[in-house]
Amino acid sequence: MDSSSALEKYGKDLTKLAKDKKLDPVVGRQNEIQSCIQILSRRTKNNPVLIGEHGVGKTAIAAGWSGYNPGISEKGPRVQMARLKINLLQARDFIWMPYSTLDVLQVVHPEVLEPRHTMLWRIAWRIAEGDDIFLDKRLISLDVGALDAEPKKFEQGMNAIIDEVTKSNGEIMLFVDDIHKIVAEDVLRRSISRGELRCIGATTMDEYHKHIEKDPTLARSFSPVYVDEPSIEETISILEGLRPKYEQHHRVRISKRALKKAALLSDQHIIGNFLPAKAIELIDDTASAKVVNLQTVSKHVGSDKSKLIPESETEKLSLESSIDEVTDDNIVAIVSKKTKIPEWKLKQSEEEKLLHLEEELRKRVVGQGHAVEAVVKAVQRSRVGLGNQKRPTASFMFMGPMGVGKTKLAKALAYLLFNTEEALVRFDMSAYKEKQAVSRLIGSPPEEGGLLTEAVRRRPYSVILFDEIEKAHPELLDEVLLPILDEGKIKDAAGRLVNFTNTVIIMTSNAGSKLVLEDADNITNKLSYQELKEKAISELQQPELINRVDESVVFQPLDADQIISIVKLKLNDLSRKMEQDKGMKIQVMEDALKLLGRWGRDLNYGAWPVKRVIQKKVEDELAKGILVEKFKQGDTIVIDAVASSSSTSSRELSFTKPQKDKSSTSNVFPFTLVA
Fold it and tell me: Any residues with CB less than 8 A from the CB of 97 and at least 6 apart, and which?
């Protein structure tokens, strides 16, 4: 194998692609590109390694550098360069540039006036100073997968590549994505450490710590450049820069509202990837689906595809020949299909969600008016921008006895704010009593990541529930919770910064339980809600937490009517399941509701017994009736309370089919199926 064919086989010339305008435009990332250029300009340790998660744009930064490079290699007359140097002395910070400078820059490279090429000005400045380090350079992207595919020829291929790069006398630089896969190879290690070749690498934080940072030789050769996930605003700018490419490819228009919706919904609901990659993929998927649907429709109406998609004789597609427009509704439809979240929920505006938040919470959480009101006000205050935007969206301390709705309120909040109960991340703090267990939340050096930090990195929009916080080790407060509540961010064991500003933090405690239960039995001398709250806070004895949360809330015991309301909610879920899965309907008489409510009430355990009562008294009997074919598809099952056959003083439930001549159903609980 000759060396020239090795680079052609295993490499891609990014510089040539940039000259031929075959690379996607690079929007933003000026700081990272500038850092790469500075590192490449060094005498030693001049190999930058881009560190970031998959999809944040590491490869785009390398492509962006090569995009600036072609103009540099076009050497203009020294008169022009000298003139450029003189004029740039007046605009060293590039705040303004005189017309003569613009003329010179246009001679050097006609595209310099485009916004994405502003970094070229800085390189042009270096050339004007006499530094020709980037003249005639070529950046070759090495295909690691192609090398790995031929294990027997791997070493031979690497030797041939390195030999050609070395013989180029610095003209060729390599870009290696997933550099951790080959950086340990002796031949590459030696060449990099000796300075025989210059290389831009890309890898994740975990792989950098495992394969590069721990190796003294490689650590001395590489300089890290950290690439963070862009914000939603930055992602929208990136999408706007890429829009012409995707419009040309799919032959559709893409509206600005679609770009904004793609950035927002992908950030909130598509997990397992990072911005901007997942937003770009969403735009690509939506445009593709739009074209496929149009082609399907054209076949049904007997239209010729050529009538819908005109063939352009020019290389560029004119937007006038576009067949349709990708709208924000199209984006919503694709996200709904991917996430199973109903389209109507994804279409809800933030303002609409916040306005109806209290109403919807009260439908799902029985009683606890004080808690619902406090939560809603804190969330609304933060979401409209009046709160501290560098802290979590909202933070709460829920106190009171078990089974009264603390976890239920957290689940309902996750569903209403983030459209799915899967956005609730729960940690039982009784499992974190030991000091060493705290590291499980943020990770430890041998591990890849902590349970808490990884959960938030994958789903940044979530409700984090720390259950029974008083059982956690005290060090958890100092190292985890207090930094999150104060600054809205925390570093994991690998040194990655995890952002909690889009999360809702909820801590629960049984503090005040005994006091609340005693007050519920006290008829004559009841304490006010504020008095109960103050006493519960005093019992908790964690002022450092109380002073940092937005609201501290005391949950009160459930009375008999509230337990019956919970029974209705549970039976409503059962009725919906029976009708959807079995094709059977359930009617529950008022006496049966009261009987189930009486069986399911326990002041010490709240609503917990309700679930068990319905399982044993209702679901078991329904299952038995279905198995013996007493109840079949299409039947309506009436559940009523009747006198017990074994005792005249007790009552039991009956499960029957309604009589055909029965006309009155006034005492039947009317189930309303919730969508």
Answer: 87, 88, 91, 105, 121
